[in-house]
From TrEMBL:
Alphabetized UniProt keyword annotations: DNA-binding, Metal-binding, Zinc, Zinc-finger
Domain of life, source organism: Eukaryota
Molecular function in Gene Ontology: DNA binding; zinc ion binding
InterPro entries per UniProt: THAP_Znf, THAP_Znf_sf
Transmembrane segments: none
Keyword Ion transport among record annotations: no
Name used for this protein in its record: THAP-type domain-containing protein
Keyword DNA-binding tagged: yes
Domain THAP-type positions: 12-100
């Protein structure tokens, strides 16, 4: 009998860039870009989240690292007069990640091997 291997979905999925977090964008978890337009805030996020590498446009922080008060809701307009129907969460410009912070950076995390 021939084995059939399922191929992985090659479509890329955005995920949280915070060490020890494996969240993806879902109906209950939103992803937010780093504040590259505000270098001081970006540096503060990077330090709090223990990210040891330079921040890029492709890096995100999930909503699991923020308090409910750090968000504001809005309706995202698709075309004139229509919306998605479900309000999306938008992070406030002054929001600071303060929940589920990593204990160490990716660089300090070691893989344990069984012997």
């Amino acid at each position: 009998m021939q084995q059939i291997h399922k191929t992985k979905n090659t479509k890329s999925r955005k995920s949280c860039s915070v060490p020890q977090c494996s969240s993806y964008c879902t109906d209950s978890v939103s992803l937010h870009k780093f504040s590259l337009w505000n270098p001081k805030l970006c540096k503060r996020w990077r330090n709090l989240l223990k990210i040891g590498k330079p921040i890029t446009n492709n890096m995100y922080v999930c909503s699991e690292h923020f308090l409910p008060r750090d968000f504001t809701s809005f309706n995202k307009t698709l075309t004139e007069g229509s919306s998605t129907g479900k309000p999306r969460q938008r992070i406030k410009k002054i929001a600071i990640p303060s929940v589920n912070l990593p204990k160490s950076s990716h660089e300090n995390t070691k893989c344990e091997r069984r012997m």
